[in-house]
Prior knowledge:
Layout: E1 6-10, H1 14-26, E2 31-34, H2 37-42, E3 50-55, H3 63-73, E4 79-83, H4 88-96, E5 101-104, H5 109-138, H6 142-145, H7 151-166, E6 170-174, H8 180-189, E7 198-202, H9 208-216, H10 233-236, E8 241-245, H11 252-264, E9 266-267, E10 276-277, E11 281-286, H12 290-295, H13 301-307, E12 310-314, H14 324-339, H15 348-356, H16 362-375, H17 388-392, H18 395-413, H19 418-424, H20 429-438, H21 443-449
Parallel strand pairs: 1-2, 1-3, 3-4, 4-5, 6-11, 6-12, 7-8, 8-11
Antiparallel strand pairs: 9-10
Helix pairs in contact: 7-8, 11-13, 14-16, 18-19, 19-20
Amino acid sequence: MGNIIKVVIIDDDQTIIEALTEMLELEGFQITSYFSAEKAILALDHHSTAVILSDVRMPKMDGLSLLARLRALDNELPVILMSGHGDIPMAIEAMKEGAYDFLEKPLQPAQLINQLQRAAEKRQLVLENRKLKQNIAQQTGLEALIIGESAAIKSIRQHISSLAQANIDTIIYGETGCGKDVVARALHQFSLRNKGRFIAINCGGISESLIESELFGHEAGSFTGANKRHIGKIEAANGGTLFLDEIETMPLPVQIKLLRVLQERTIERVGSTQPIPVELTVIAASKDNLAQLGEEGKFRKDLFYRLNVASLTIPPLRDRPEDILPLFHHYARKAAAHFSKPLPLITPRYLEYLIQHPWPGNVRELKNAADRFVLGISETSLASIKREDDINGSYEERMEQFERHIIEEGLRVTNGQLNEAAELLDMSRKTLYRKMKKHQLDKQQFKAFDDGQE
Length: 454
């Protein structure tokens, strides 16, 4: 998953650097170390695949000054500060200025490793998001329309290039919301008929009594209410492309007339016997297997064979997880521009949701999720997943997290003994109990921790 994120250790104490390097390398981290903040800054940039672990008390440039410089260099670079002289005011200042975390020496190995792993995951995601955005911005042609990295989508792009130049009638198969209309528009846009009109009609959205008039048009007085001549969709698409969505819902009598149009490339308006020649490409879309419907007598076999010069099948989104993040980025960027909102960073937890969600509504559901994500509208299925700006963007939110972290450490060190924890944290037992209740902490979980029953 992308480049390996290394840990950059900055400390003026060689003994500490050696000890940390040995411990973290045993845990699988790649380590680079510096004895001064000035040298470390020269080696870092906006694209660094790194997490910073720095001491606060250093000569010339201290950790807080380093933090400010790194935030100016890249405000998404995770910086974990550590200090043997740390106190609450210093920690608050560090968190307020954007530190990923503040750890007090002597460092607790499990806590340090956990925070470094989380910071590395965040950095990996940030860099991948940046690369993906850059790739999307550089996309042209079909890649900008048919978005995705899966083998299926790459194959569809290749087929579109071939079919579009041939101007042949095509059937597009796929579940509801998978993007059949997008593929149809791409077939038109890259065809030799792209100067003509792209006319779309949803066969399932028009009543049976009106669909014939909508497709073929009618002459004035041809039926009750026909007060003037009406040009139908097929005639309007002359010289271009006609897209028939949900063609499986088209009534059988209308299918017979459509077959004649495909065979003779002429139409007759309702109420007229005058043939009108048309030159167009017909693209049909269906969520059902038309061949199977033909065997069941629910769709005309001869119409199926006439349409089925070529066919494309779009797999559901759940079968092509490689496409989820590129598509989400695409729609999130469009939503941010449409709603004039900043584009939030996708957190690892939100990314996990995106990948694991089955997306029964396919790309259409994903687009709606991107809109809600940009607008900050929470969803039932995302109740426990917060956006990055919800987690780290608010001063109050981050202080709440830091307070909980301090109390957890106090309870862990004292094995859940409230009197000892209150004394260690320099607060009354009543205050400790109130804060534990606020953060929903139970002393029993910390008693089990030291017994190896975590």
